[in-house]
Amino acid sequence: MSEGLNFNETLYPGVQVSYSCDQILYQEKTEHQDLVLFTNPVFGKVLMLDGITQVTTADEFIYHEMMSHVPILAHGAAKNVLIVGGGDCGLAEEVLKHKSVEKLVQVEIDASVVDFSREHFGDFNSGVLDDERFELVIADGMKFAAETERRFDVVIVDSTDPHGPGAVLFSEEFYRNVHRMLTPGGVLVTQNGVPFLQKQELVTSVERFSRIFADAAAYIAAIPTYFGGHMALGWASDNPELRNQAVSVLEERFKAAGIVTRYYTPDVHAAAFALPRFILDAVEEGRAKA
Ligand code: SAM
Asked: What spatial distance separates the first Cα and last Cα of the chain, rounded to whole Å?
């Protein structure tokens, strides 16, 4: 028991999220970032990188289900999937639930995050690293995207925030390289912050998407770990129809996939693209700036 020890997240000026710490499970200053994993009575295991909460065992299912099942079921024929970031491997676990996915490549910059996640996050990533469809590449996602000749139907960017090693993953050059990596009509989905507190992050990403892709948008999910209301998940594709799939089509595909979920449903999928006014304003501002 770590009497009286708290970990405070200070991502937003004037706001501090404080977690009481029951026990520190792991702590390391890696080549790329400060990493700490501790237990909290409410959120369970909490991973922080550079003082910012990345994932907790209590609600990881919300984020990982919405980052995986939405693009894969909207696409309908995704065989090759790329994850950029995602070191805790919770997202990979959800993607690999789709038997139709033949190959999942994950490009993660920090091997330490994957190593300790293998040991400490079996709660939600069991079997991923032993799945023959899974290929882990330890590299900077920016460099991989610029150099690879491989092609993907769905690219999911599960990155840290736009500073430190994650900053390049919000750049126009990176999005252009993702567009090059996507098969025709493929989909890009990005972790894009909490619009109520990080509005400019969404505006800038949609602006950059709009200069590169035919369809630039966002969808939302409410994830208690990411303080501040809805989290925005960026969406970009050259096939505008994918974002407007009928619920009946999604139900058919979800049923055929035979996946059990705790947050995702076809109705939640469709509803997630119905944005509250202030978030829609941010998306429209981004499109208008392009
Ligand atoms: N869901 C979390 C969030 O929304 O903040 C992110 C979780 S995941 C742990 C973020 C991962 O992105 C980390 O493992 C980090 O090492 C990785 N990452 C950061 N910059 C990267 C880069 N340039 N290339 C590849 N991976 C990167």
From this structure: 52
Closest CA to ligand 1's atom 18: 85
141 Cβ closer than 6 Å to some ligand 1 atom: yes
The answer to whether residue 140 is catalytic is: no
Q: State the Cα–Cα distance between residues 134 and 131, nearest whole angstrom.
A: 5
- In this prediction the pTM is 0.97
Q: How many residues does the chain have?
A: 290
pLDDT in tens, 111-146: 999 999 999 999 899 899 999 999 999 999 999 999
Q: What is the pLDDT of residue 142?
A: 98
Q: What is the pLDDT of residues 64-82, one digit of tens each?
A: 999 999 999 999 999 999 9
Give φ, ψ of 104 to 5 degrees.
-125, 115
In the chain, the amino acid numbered 56 is T
Q: How far is the CA of 255 from the centre of ligand 1 (A)?
A: 31
Rounded Cα–Cα distance for residues 2 and 135 (Å): 38
Centre of ligand 1 from the C-alpha of residue 84, in Å: 7
Query: Which of these, 125, 79, 124, 74, lies nearest to 98 by C-alpha position?
Result: 79
